[in-house]
Structure formats: structure tokens, C-alpha cells
Amino acid sequence: MKVLSFKNYQSLSDFAATEIANAIKNKPSLVLCLASGDTPKLTVELLVKKIKDQKIDHSAITFIGLDEWVGLPPENTGSCHYFFQSKLIEPLQLKPSQYFLFNALANDLQNECIEMDQVIDQKKGIDIMLVGIGMNGHIGFNEPGSSFNNLSHVIELDEVTKSVGKKYFTEQVELSQGITLGFKHLMNAGKVFLMANGIKKADVIKKTVDGPVTEDFPASIMQKHQNGFVLIDEEAASLLNKTA
Ligand code: F6R
Predict the structure, then answer these.
(1) Which member of 58, 81, 136, 185 is catalytic?
(2) Alpha-carbon distance 31 to 38, whole Å?
(3) Per-residue pLDDT tens for 33-67?
(4) CA pair distance 9, 207, nearest whole angstrom
């Protein structure tokens, strides 16, 4: 794992977007997995702009959504589905065969997990995964205590996740479970970017980078990834001893 520190949110987002755009140029059939949420917003916007401005052929990429709130319809503006649909899928006019998102309304959520794992297997794994980090150290909805050996799974949400998650919604919603890719997918991904910005993420970044590797603090798994990068702005880096 490497830590890369950037002056601000704009420059770290631009770095991530450039990395992904270049990866698509080098491998037009790139399998890309992204988190939703506040952190990757600008990266996704910049990525779409780069693909359009540079006319990068994205007709063969595969996109995989990292997670979803169980029970939320895709048209809910706080859902991960809505985020990807409005920010990536529509702007890039991805074909339905190019993207895979968990259906959080499915009667059989276990089957959703099996199908997602099969898709990832068929695509021969994820090339690039870009994730955020929760205030409890979660990645996706791999909450504290989640096994590092998980594939896709359904999970009871941590209290911190339920409380922080309210920020995505304009109305009151009942958040109780999440459906998410697991850490086996993350460890098997060719490259992983974990992004964080702002002073509020300084403590979780310190634990991610300098703390013990433990399932009690999920993001610590990044230390084990051979091609993992922690991308942070100066504020999120402020508690670290040194950064590259
Ligand atoms: C969302 C997701 C979550 C977020 C994390 C940070 O798809 O996977 O793990 O990445 O909660 O959220 P933000 O970026 O809003 O601080």
C-alpha cells in the first residue's frame, strides 16, 4: 500500500480520474468498480469529462457498483443506484450489458450476491476499484467485524453508518441493511484506490495507515493490498507522520 497526499480535494480527484481514464485507454475492456457517496463525486464528474473531451472509447468497459442500501428503490436520490445512473451511466450512455448494480429491492438478496460474484468471475475480476471510507472505517458496507474473506453479502448496518448515512437523503428513510461487495473482491482487484478528504477523515485515515490490520477496523485491510493506494488531501493526512 502507498499513501499519496494531495494539496486539496480537486487535485486528488483529478489524479484518480486521470488514472482511471488512462487505464481505459490501456485496456478498453477495463472492469471498474466505484463507490458512491460524497468522496468520489468529483472523480466521477472529472472522469466523465475526460472520457468525453479525449473521446476515449469506453464502449467495452464494465462498470460495477460497490454497494446499495437494502430496500431503497433506484429512483431514491440518496441511493447508490441513482448516483451511478445520474453521474456515470447516463452521461456515458453505458449499455445495460456494461453495468451491474445490486437490486436492493430483490426478494432474494442472496441470489443478487451470487449473481454479482458470478459477473465478477466471468469478467476475470475487477481491474480498478475506487472506494471511500466511512467514519467507522467501513469500505462499501463492510462494517466493523466483517470478515476479510467475504464475497458479496448482505449485512446489518452499523449504528455509525445509519446515522452518517442520513446525509444522503432529503426525506426520512429506514436504513437497516446493506448489500455490498466483500473484501475478497477488494484483495483480488488489480488496483485499489481508497480516497478520503477533509479533516473529519483524519482519524480514520490514521487508523487505516498506521493502525493494526484487523477486521474491527475494516479499512486497515488496505495495508495488505500489493497495489493499494490511499489518496488523501492535506486535511485527511494531517494526523499521519509522513506521506509520500
Ligand atoms: C458508498 C460506500 C461507502 C462510502 C463511505 C464514505 O457507496 O461504499 O462505504 O464510501 O461511507 O462516504 P462519503 O464519501 O460520503 O464520506
Answers:
(1) 136
(2) 22
(3) 999 999 999 999 999 999 999 999 999 999 999 99
(4) 20
Q: pLDDT at residue 243 above 60?
A: no
| pLDDT category of residue 242 using cuts at 50, 70 and 90 | low
- Considering the candidates 68, 112, 127, 143, report the single residue annotated as catalytic: 143
User: In testing the pocket of ligand 1, which one of 69, 139, 195 has its CB within 8 Å of the most ligand atoms?
Assistant: 139
Give me the helix-helix angle, 9-26 and 41-53, nearest 10°. Answer: 50
Cα-based distances in Å from 110 to 74, 168, 220? 19, 25, 27
Distance 115 CA to ligand 1 centre (A): 23
* Residue of 109, 169, 130 whose CA lies nearest to 42: 130
Nearest atom of ligand 1 to the alpha carbon of 164: 11
pTM of the model: 0.97
Average pLDDT over residues 133-160: 98
- Per the document, the length of the chain is 244
Active site residue 234: no
